[in-house]
Amino acid sequence: MSKIIGIDLGTTNCAVAVIKESGKPEIIKNQEGDPTTPSVVLFQDFGEGVDEPLVGTLAKRQAALYPDDIVQYVKRRMGDPDWRFDSTAGNEYTAEEVSAIILKRLKQDAEMALGEEVTDAVITVPAYFDDARRTATKQAGKIAGLNVLRVLNEPTAAALSYGVNSEVSGTVLVYDLGGGTFDVTLLKINDSNFEVIATDGDRNLGGFDFDNELMTFVAEQLEAQGAKDVLDDTAVVADLREKAEIAKKSLTTMASTKVQTSVNGKPYKVTVTREDFEKCTASLLERTKELVESVLAESKTSWSGVDHVLLVGGSTRMPMVKAMVEDLSGKGVELDVNPDEAVAQGAAVQGALSGGPETASSGNFLVGDGGGVLNGKTFTIADVTSQSLGVILVDSDSNRDTNVVVIERNSKIPGSHSVPAFTLFDRQTGINVKVTEGEDTDPEFVTIIGESTLSIPPYPKGAPIEITYSYDIDQTIVVEVFDHTAGKSLGTFDIDRVANMDESSVGAAAVRLQSMEIS
Ligand code: AMP
């Protein structure tokens, strides 16, 4: 059996890892010899309507030169049915397809490094990703020609790699601030048992937002120096965004830095101090602090009950993050965690655990949901749901549509929960199940992620039925409707996801990608 790779498909950077003969996860370097690959695609148009996508560092370097041909931060668009990228060559791509192009390049690089074909992978997602985004990630893998064994939560992956590498026990808080998303997760590690207690996050909060704030700050300084409408020019914005990220990284080690640029042909120079940067991004850091506190409160855990704090994601290199977390927790953070590599390594561990009996030669056997044996040790991994799932029912008192939560967020997965319901009128012949995400009782403030209608015999009003949602380890939902009058199940169904590509479009996209040259 070929090797199973673990992929951290990040907003700004990706990493790939595999379990080596030593039984430890190791990062697979890309073609350029780097441990991470920027999640950037340059759509090169060499004529005849054909795109030749370039992925990674070389694409990122050309972002400012070709702002119209570049796609960055596509992870933020996953599961958005309306988003498309139109290439200069005249082709249209969904976010799943752009992600698939990145994944295909990662697959090619891994195959080159390992000297064998790679088909199976575990791909990580932010814990706070919802159903549409998880489904979109799986579809991207499929389009890229990968068999996605699992989508694994990034903080859980980081904890797995930490646990495998350091053999620790206790309560662990993972603070994961990446390029585009923030997750905070509290878990218990007991020998090789990993039990997630609670998770929260913000899928639109990451290094990218810190870059944006700094870019706005620099633009204001430029305008104070006489430059006009700095952020109205897409080429200037692309240049400034890149320079803002470089300045941000410089401020990790230096107290001040300079940003040089030209607007309308005139050169400008702006000095930025670490203090300026920390001031203009204070509200973003504060938001992460609130989410950390809310996870602790929700799981009724105080800082004295937290044994280890892990910082994961490139943005945790900012000194203010470490200072804030240490100040808040009153303890030092674990230093032997590589913020760029831990997630991919954990995905590789999960890959080995999910590999099944065929991987017996490397000592791995599948023993249960998400767990398994690695290096002779049995692992169990219990994760939780990051979103509440509900159903729209008619409230019998008010006669109004109401969202009723079926599975509460932070429930253990895999899991199954039910709510009772009744037919609404005489001779009703169908049951419509609208699956929602969110906690509010008002349907206006939750997201309908899919629906399905099942036929029933023409029952009188008030016939009892039961709606059951089952969540698997990938947080994929299966719905079952039980007819209590007939005493039988009306069936189990996967929901038709309103925000995702349908199966035939995924198949067509996979065929299109197969014939594409990706470098
Ligand atoms: P990730 O998605 O985990 O690879 O995180 C990438 C994010 O980390 C990007 O927003 C980077 O700008 C940010 N990052 C990487 N290195 C540093 C650094 N030295 N200082 C501040 N931010 C960094």
What does this structure look like?
This protein has 519 residues and is of the alpha+beta class. Among the domains are: 207-280, ATPase, substrate binding domain, subdomain 4 (Actin, Chain A, domain 4); 389-497, Substrate Binding Domain Of DNAk, Chain A, domain 1 (Sandwich), CATH 2.60.34.10. It contains eleven helices and 29 strands. Strands 12, 13, 14, 17, 18, 19 and 22 form a seven-stranded mixed β-sheet that branches. Strand 27 and strand 28 form a beta hairpin. The longest helix has 20 residues, at 95-114. The protein is globular. The structure holds adenosine monophosphate. Adenosine monophosphate binds at residues 10-13, 178-179, 207-208, 245, 248-249, 252, 313-315, 317-318, 340.
**Assembly state here?**
single chain
Class of secondary structure makeup = alpha+beta
Cα(first) to Cα(last) distance is: 27 Å
Largest sheet: 7 strands, mixed
Question: Could you give the topology of this structure?
Answer:
Layout: E1 5-9, E2 13-19, E3 25-27, E4 37-38, E5 41-45, E6 51-55, H1 57-61, E7 70-71, E8 85-86, E9 92-93, H2 95-114, E10 120-125, H3 131-143, E11 147-153, H4 154-166, E12 170-177, E13 182-190, E14 193-202, H5 207-224, H6 234-253, E15 256-263, E16 266-273, H7 274-280, H8 282-298, E17 308-312, H9 319-329, H10 342-354, E18 372-374, E19 377-384, E20 389-394, E21 401-407, E22 412-413, E23 415-422, E24 428-437, E25 447-459, E26 464-471, E27 477-483, E28 488-494, E29 496-497, H11 503-514
Helix pairs in contact: 2-3, 3-11, 4-10, 5-6
This protein binds adenosine monophosphate (AMP).
The site of adenosine monophosphate has 18 residues, from helix 5 and helix 6.
